[in-house]
């Protein structure tokens, strides 16, 4: 796969961990790319009111996702609050009506760095952690695959959102 842009190109060969890292970083970079060149107002543009879904809302949501799975679950940091909800409501992250690119991207990038550190420091992909909400244990491998899935799904939303803002499509 030749991306033809600034996103990292996932390897065609490598260890499982190298490939999971690369694909996760590829999808992270794709979401950032979908937001490139837009101002705060454009990033906050909603898809179909009354939905609050916007490109900036997707970035806020993915910051919460990174924070939850890597910090709360894998790293067992129990006392960290949600970034955008005092009630622990993940849906509130989608409403970026008063947010700015600067604050949202700073929070998302910080969570991505925490996630990368936690993954790097983990002994293996077979590290297990308990996800209390489900009452089940999950592996780091599962968390990384889940985040790849989550980014891929939301990058599809980002494609449509970006096209609605300024007509840009592709990649």
Describe this structure in words.
The protein is mostly helical and 171 residues long. It has helices at 16-35, 40-43, 55-74, 101-121, 140-166; strands at residues 128-131, 136-139. It has a two-stranded antiparallel sheet with strand order 1-2. A hairpin with a 4-residue loop joins strand 1 and strand 2 (136-139). Helix 1 (16-35) packs antiparallel against helix 3 (55-74), helix 3 runs parallel beside helix 4 (101-121) and helix 3 (55-74) packs antiparallel against helix 5. The N and C termini lie close together (11 Å).
Cα-atom radius of gyration: 16 Å
Roughly how many Å apart are the termini? 11 Å
Classify the fold: give the CATH topology.
Answer: Four Helix Bundle (Hemerythrin (Met), subunit A)
Overall shape: globular
Please give the number of β-strands.
2
Q: Estimate percent helicity.
A: 40-55%
The neighbouring-strand order within the major sheet is 1-2
SSE string, helices as H and strands as E? HHHHEEH
Major β-sheet annotation = 2 strands, antiparallel
CATH architecture classification name: Up-down Bundle
CATH class: Mainly Alpha
The fraction of residues in strands falls at under 5%
Mean pLDDT across residues: 93
Structural class: mainly alpha
Oligomeric composition of the shown chains: single chain
How many structural domains are formed by the residues? 1
CATH superfamily: dinb family like domain
- What is the tally of helical segments? 5
Q: Give start-end ranges of low-pLDDT stretches.
A: none
